[in-house]
Amino acid sequence: MPSATTPEDAYTAAPFVPARGGLDVLRRAAAGCRGCPLYGPATQTVFGEGDADARVMLVGEQPGDQEDRQGRPFVGPAGRLLHRALEEAGLDPAEAYVTNAVKHFKFAQTEPRKRRIHRAPTLREMTACAPWLARELALVEPELVVILGATAGKALLGSSFRVGQVRGTVIVRDVHGRPERLLPTVHPSSVLRADDRDTAYRGLLDDLKVAARALG
Question: At 181, is the secondary structure helix, strand, or coil?
Answer without folding.
Answer: strand
